[in-house]
Structures are given as C-alpha cells and as structure tokens.
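dumping this here before i forget
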Amino acid sequence: MEVITLSMEESQAGQRLDKVLSSAIEGSRTQIQQWIKDGNVKVNESKAKGNYKVKVNDTIIIEIPEPEPLDVVPEEMDLDIYYEDEDVLVVNKPRGMVVHPAPGHVSGTLVNGLMAHCKDLSGINGVMRPGIVHRIDKDTSGLLMVAKNDLAHESLVSQLVAKTVTRRYKAIVHGEIAHENGTIDAPIGRDKKDRQSMTVTNENSRDAVTHFKVLERFKDFTFVECQLETGRTHQIRVHMKYIGFPLAGDPKYGPKKTLDIDGQALHAGILGFDHPRTGEYKEFEAPLPEEFSDLLDLLAKRS
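structure:
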C-alpha cells in the first residue's frame, strides 16, 4: 500500500478535500471520493468527508490501496534487449507500445513481453508493473531500465531520486530555437482544466528541470536533445510547450497543424546508471527509429 502525506498551503485553504486531492495526486475524483468514503484518507489523523474545507497546515495522509489483481499474462514478443544480467535489463521500447497494463488494457504491453522473457522481475510495484522503475509514454520510443529483483529496484529508484541517472532524449519541436542551449526549470502539476494533462504550475506541483541543446535547425522546426534532471509525467512535452516550442506530432500538447506522424517525435536514446550490485556505471544508446530519421530527412529537403 502506498502512503502519501500532504501539508496544506495557504493557496489551498477553503477548498474541498476531494478537489485538493484530485489536483495533488494521480487518480480520478470519483476514485478519491471512494478512498475518502472507505477511510483511506485522514486529516490531522482523523477521518474526514469529501466536502471538508481544508485549512492551512492541515496534514493529510492518503493510503492508496493496492489495485485489484488483474489477469496479466505473459506474451511472447520480439523484445529489443540491449543488456541483461541477474539484476537489470535494458530494453528499447518501440513507439506505440504501452509500458505496463492498466484496467481495461491488460495485454500487448511491455510488461506482458517481459513476463514471457524472464520469470524474475521485482515485485515492488505490484502485479501490474513488475520490474518497472520508470516509464516513457506510449508514443515515445527508447530505452528503459527494468529491475529483476527488489534490491536492484530500490537502487535504481534511489538513483532516480538522487538525479544521477543519465536520460537524454532526441526530439523535433515546432519553431526555430535561436539559442544553442538552455535550461527549463519550471514545476509541473496536473492541469485543473484537464485531469489527463500536466502543466507548468505552482499549485500542487513538483520541481521539474529539463536541459536542452539544439542539434539542427530546419524551416519551422528544430531538432533538439533534451536531458532530464527530474522525471515528471510528460515532462519534456510540457516544458517544450511552456517555452513556445511544442513537440511535433504531439496530440496533447502540440498544435493541430503539425507533421503527419502518429504521436510525438520523441526518442529516449541514451540511458546510463550505476549497476545496483557492482556500482559500475553503464550507459546505453539506441539509434533513432527509422520513422524518426525519415522525418529529419523530410525536413532537410523542405528547408
């Protein structure tokens, strides 16, 4: 069971408890209201109702119950594995593949393929996300590290928290960025107007830092490399939109008139970490997928 503790700030005072929680954590308002009804939410160590108006310095503890077990079955897949030993596996996920199962979508994911490939995956994230330490979006291609036991999982998560994991992405963005590099330091939280989207906000947000450099400029587009210092949901997509250069093909954060591609032009090309058992630094690089390279060729011809 995951436990989250929140301390209410002045900007949240007077808001309904269920509304505050739906803005602060992942989960629908209906789901959060059910947690409150079931006694999984406490305010200052006491049970509260969803319509409770929070006060400054209220301490809210949310006990998120484990999801109902799903029938997640192994599926044989042709996985593009870059590295594997008794502790860690590094796999190159293709565009269009979901990382882990979710209610209503329990097949065809990377986890289904991993379960068929190896029987030993860490159990820290439960039956739906065995071995999964971090994620990339369905339409983002690239490298993921997978933990094959709990020792490895804890080590890799600690490295993510300490910001020592190397994660560099290639992306095509709208617009021509004039400067050669930059850093976007802007907190990200859930968009109150659209619960399925993230946005730059100071309310119920977490720090987020993205470094970028220009690799090549085209007419109306720029090819960039982004390095993550933090790993928030949709971070690169949200940050590039925030500075006025949204990702090409991004159906959620980009313009409607864009390149004719299926999803955002984003590839997690470089991944590096300290091996959980030996401490040796390991780094891996996956080349751009063919459809990404074809886009670059097309833009070069247009320019």
